């Protein structure tokens, strides 16, 4: 008997994770059917994806682009009726509401705090939720875990490092774990001096040596804030304190995570630097997807290197550890500040090293309440962003 198609609700279809997810869906049309597609502002690409995959629902976050999305589906799909039967939505609230609709697998790939409500709604609904949106776990991890406990939802980390740790923990007792190691490529500026990084351009920062990623996460990789947020995320997902989560620079990006056990054993997960590997694991879970990637050459393992990160040149990693130790809304503060800083770096308003400067300013000057209620998280996030813009106006003359 043929296997029933698994419905996939993809939040963040126009980004790099969305692209890789849809590539795997296309390779296995007999196994997966896309039921929901959402995007941010790339209305042209979202229209093309909707016409190709014909989901039940498509939504764009920028509500001003909703008429264009409707027109594209009506005109471009008219000849073959490809746009018929697709419900079209616009705005963040509409996207969050779509996450309440049943799907066999929800892929949460929206970047930043914009992905929080879709993640929370999907988890409250239940089912399997694959999370590539680390910001939702960093800011509201306790709420998401509690919601999963109530609904019975299964949370699958899609980030390569956390997916690796999850795989290396299968069949093991939590109390047998001593520590975990998250690997980091070091980004494009690993061997740059401080003077060189001061003049780094957005184009240089997004040119990652190993991974194909979106602009925001590429900059986070360059500052190592991405790894810092992943340390916080790992603490939430695997219930580990900050001092039991290590980070090692592994320039080859072949080992993605290591679990160290109390008996001296170490289990590592390895694979090529291709996000389709952890994505395929989540898509097929609890099975495996036979998509025939290029096998990892064991010859490549002979040149593997591991080294400690340099906290002086990459202070964002330690800032994330400080926020994790502080607890409460400190991770929310740091995440909000970092999103604002990266946005301004990408548009050329501030320098690369100013990202860490703004993050440090917010951690040092803003109170971080202990409350982890949803309303408190959202209002605190807004307050921090306002404070960031005030600081940018004072320090750099940047007005919104």
Number of domains: 3
Series of secondary-structure elements, N-terminal to C-terminal:
EHEHEHEHEHEHEHEHHHHEEEHHHHH
Oligomer: single chain
* Computed CA radius of gyration, to the nearest angstrom: 21 Å
- The H-level CATH homologous superfamily of the largest domain, spelled out, is NAD(P)-binding Rossmann-like Domain
Number of strands: 11
Detail the poorly predicted runs.
none
Any guess at the CATH architecture of the largest domain? 3-Layer(aba) Sandwich
Distance between the termini: 59 Å
Strand content: 5-15%
Question: What can you tell me about this protein's structure?
Answer:
The protein folds into 3 domains: 6-158, Rossmann fold, CATH 3.40.50; 159-274 and 297-312, no CATH class; 327-400, RNA polymerase sigma factor, region 2, helix turn helix motif (Rna Polymerase Sigma Factor, Chain: A), CATH 1.10.1740.10. Helix content is 46%, strand content 15%. It has helices at residues 16-27, 43-53, 66-76, 92-98, 116-125, 134-151, 160-169, 194-198, 202-205, 215-223, 225-238, 276-284, 315-326, 330-346, 352-365, 374-396; strands at residues 6-11, 32-39, 57-60, 87-90, 105-108, 128-131, 154-157, 177-184, 245-249, 255-261, 266-270. It has a 7-stranded parallel sheet with strand order 4-3-2-1-5-6-7, sandwiched between helices. Strands 9-8-10-11 form a 4-stranded mixed sheet, covered by helices on one side.
């Amino acid at each position: 008997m043929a296997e029933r198609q698994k419905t996939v609700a993809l939040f963040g279809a126009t980004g790099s994770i969305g692209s890789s997810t849809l590539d795997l869906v296309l390779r296995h049309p007999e196994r997966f059917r896309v039921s929901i597609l959402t995007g941010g502002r790339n209305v042209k690409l979202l229209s093309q994806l909707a016409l190709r995959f014909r989901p039940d629902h498509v939504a764009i976050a920028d509500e001003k682009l909703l008429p264009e999305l409707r027109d594209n589906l009506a005109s471009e799909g008219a000849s073959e009726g490809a746009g018929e039967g697709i419900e079209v939505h616009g705005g963040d609230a509409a996207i969050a509401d779509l996450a309440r609709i049943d799907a066999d697998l929800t892929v949460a790939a929206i970047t930043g705090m914009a992905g929080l409500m879709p993640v929370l709604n999907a988890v409250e609904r239940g089912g399997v939720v694959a999370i590539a949106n680390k910001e939702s776990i960093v800011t509201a991890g306790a709420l998401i875990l509690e919601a999963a406990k109530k609904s019975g939802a299964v949370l699958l980390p899609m980030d390569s490092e956390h997916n690796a740790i999850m795989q290396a923990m299968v069949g093991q007792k939590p109390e047998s774990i001593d520590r975990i190691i998250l690997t980091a490529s070091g980004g494009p500026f690993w061997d740059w001096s401080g003077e060189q990084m001061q003049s780094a351009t957005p184009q240089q920062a997004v040119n990652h040596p190993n991974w194909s990623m979106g602009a925001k996460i590429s900059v986070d990789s360059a500052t190592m804030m991405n790894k810092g947020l992943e340390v916080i995320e790992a603490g939430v997902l695997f219930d580990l304190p900050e001092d039991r989560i290590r980070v090692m620079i592994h320039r080859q990006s072949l080992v993605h995570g290591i679990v160290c056990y109390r008996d001296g054993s170490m289990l590592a997960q390895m694979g090529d630097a291709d996000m389709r590997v952890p994505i395929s694991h989540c898509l097929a879970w609890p099975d495996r997807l036979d998509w025939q990637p290029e096998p990892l050459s064991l010859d490549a393992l002979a040149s593997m290197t591991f080294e400690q990160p340099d906290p002086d040149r990459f202070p964002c990693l330690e800032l994330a550890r400080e926020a994790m130790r502080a607890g409460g809304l400190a991770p929310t503060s740091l995440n909000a500040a970092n999103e604002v800083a990266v946005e301004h770096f990408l548009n050329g308003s501030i320098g690369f090293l100013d990202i860490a400067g703004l993050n440090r300013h917010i951690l040092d000057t803003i109170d971080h309440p202990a409350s982890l209620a949803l309303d408190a998280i959202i209002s605190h996030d807004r307050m921090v962003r306002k404070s960031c813009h005030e600081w940018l106006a004072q320090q750099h003359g940047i007005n919104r």
